[in-house]
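Feature request, filed as a ticket because there's no other form

It would be nice if the structure record came with a short human-readable summary line next to the tokens. Right now we just get the raw output. Example of a typical job, pasted below so the devs can see what we mean:
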Amino acid sequence: QVRLVESGGGLVQSGGSLRLSCAVSGSIFSIFAMAWYRQAPGKQRALVARITSSGSTNYVDSVKGRFTISRDNANDTVYLQMNSLKPEDTAVYYCATEPPLHWGQGTQVTVSS
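Raw output as currently delivered:
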């Protein structure tokens, strides 16, 4: 059974940093690319960053230079380091496989101004 569990969300002031983690179980991690999505109140869920199994990355323009996605293939974990956070980054952040066949439960990130 595939399971994705996010952690690391919370409340932070504008300009601060958070690191999200996503632990993946089910022997799929080395196969899939992985991604982080976010869903802000009243908005659709949207892709934030993606990382292939070999480590190639891409980002939505709004987070380029501030967020970094990485993966630890030995520990089946994907990370999202978020720096210089802005109030508009406030959302529930979800970890998912790419393609998005499997999802985590989400973790809330709130950035206060």
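Something like this underneath would help us a lot:
The chain has no helices and ten strands.
The longest strand covers residues 18-25.
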